Amino acid sequence: MHGEPRDGRIVIVGASLAGLRAAETLREEGFAGTLTLIGEEPHTPYDRPPLSKQVLLGTVSADKTGLPQRREVDAEWKLGVRATGLDPVGKQVLLADGEKVPFDRLLIATGTRARPWPNPAEAALDGVFTLRTIEDAGRLAERLDAGPRRVLVVGAGFTGSEIASACRERGLEVTVAERGPAPLVGALGGTLGALAAKLQRAHGVDLRCGVTVTALEGNGRLTGARFSDGTGIDADVAVVALGAVRNTEWLAESGIAAGPRGVTCDAGCRAFDMYGIVTDDVFAAGDVARFPHPLFEYQLLSLEHWGNAVAQAEVAAHNMIHAGPRRRPHLTVPAFWSSQFGLNIKSVGVPTFSDQVVIAQGSLKDARLVAVYGYRGRVTAAVSVNQAKSLEYYQRLIETAAPFPPAPGAADRIESPEPVPSDVPDPKVLSHGPTVALTGHLPDRRLTLVQPAR
Amino acid sequence: MNIVVDLNRCQGYAQCAFVAPRVFTMHGEEALLYTPAVPDDQQGRVLRAEAACPVQAILVGEEAGAGAR
Ligand SMILES: Cc1cc2nc3c(=O)[nH]c(=O)nc-3n(C[C@H](O)[C@H](O)[C@H](O)COP(=O)(O)OP(=O)(O)OC[C@H]3O[C@@H](n4cnc5c(N)ncnc54)[C@H](O)[C@@H]3O)c2cc1C
Ligand code: SF4
């Protein structure tokens, strides 16, 4: 390659958030060649976060979550067709319909899909759902409209908890089953997990922690479920919220470093091959990518966060059309939001990359707080509950690896802090996968909570 | 016309909910919910909300890939 590669053929596989934002950026930054977007779903790009919020609440219909485009994107769209393989030598993407699409540079943005219920016969029962696509959300919303007697949510990660919240807001009876000790514990640790459990129960959720669902029962239609503690419930809807599976199978024979944890790439979004050699023509972005981050000791990070898909796609697109020294790293501080049970939860950094946590502002009692996380004496994350305006401040502490616990000026209203021990579970004990996966790092099992004395 | 709000950036100032209450509503004290597909009669208000948002979290545009196939 010579000069600034603004011409040629670029193919993007995965026509959703990351794919779209990359396409826009390519054109914005002057890519003048041919651009092709390949997407398995028949739809143009749409936004997923509303699916577990507005759509389940019934305020927006599932097919009305289309993503706006920031600029004209001159591209050929191949929708409703799956990429089934990649020939890295012949430089072409193989499609399910037999077509071969040649490329000079390729962006992998195939994201993740919902992890299915492991028993196929039970998964096929009428009334059993997962939630990832607009079809999923449309069908589930319709079923909730019909007023089921009880909804079972399997897995209390962010998606499961948001589903439970929407059901309660509709006045439906909900049981949530979680293998771990509390909802959200895999992403936020034990302290906020305990708060989430309290909130769910206060909102009338029948929350069962430390149990697994051993069987979904029914005859054609779902009628109920059995739990590992010997109990069972009647339910006519079950939503399986067991986390996500990365869409990398189509890369199996490609020689690219792709596996269940995603496509490994460098901080410039260039994919590695299976020998650990960085490619210069295959890039990855979004939920499917796995990349090293200096703030987290260069461990490989896989994030299932909206903001990461946008930021990483922009960096990937920039680097696809700029030569060596003009390339940029993707070093954005990870961030995500969730809303459930009337609360706005926001996170910056990686809360699971921590050994200690302090409630730096507010209190658990009021469910209005900022929890700051530290690892070996430096700030690595902060999570706000109904206190989003403070978060920017802590983001700067994370970016500058400020000492943990944060200095008193930072910590509003901290009276004599009192350490309380708390546990973060091994991801293996959770029902769902973590929304952040760090390779090689297991959080300290004995987190210390420092909270203001009451 | 479609919108998406970058809720990482959104600070819950509720300016948008004030300008275009049929499209943006606060859910609880801080969480923002919005209607991604903007009804025709709300487009003017949404454009004003976009301009009013102090952190420029609202992205307005035509639906992506329209006419894709
Ligand atoms: C219900 C729900 C709620 C969410 N809420 C939040 C939230 O509140 N906050 C937050 O930060 N994040 C949230 N997220 C996460 C956010 O939506 C994702 O991080 C984001 O969608 C990632 O975008 P992506 O483009 O990388 O991948 P995806 O959105 O997964 O898109 C990948 C696309 O690639 C396609 N594809 C896959 N394989 C192939 C193939 N072989 N050939 C062709 N096409 C293929 C898929 O069909 C899909 O359309 C939520 C996700 C869901 C499902
Ligand atoms: S005006 Fe902007 S910051 Fe305020 S609620 Fe609306 S989107 Fe959020």
What does this molecule look like?
The complex is a heterodimer of chains A (454) and B (69). Chain A has 454 residues and is an alpha/beta fold. Chain A contains nine helices and 31 strands. In chain A, β18 and β19 form a beta hairpin. In chain A, α1 packs parallel to α8. Chain A starts with 8 loop residues before the first strand and ends with a strand. About 1% of the residues of chain A have low confidence. By secondary structure, chain B is an alpha+beta fold. Chain B has two helices and four strands, in the order βαββαβ. A two-stranded antiparallel ribbon of chain B has the order 1-4. A two-stranded antiparallel sheet of chain B has the order 2-3. In chain B, a hairpin with a 3-residue loop joins β2 and β3. The model of chain B has no long low-confidence stretch (mean pLDDT 94). At the A-B interface, α8, β24 and β25 of A face β1, β3 and β4 of B.
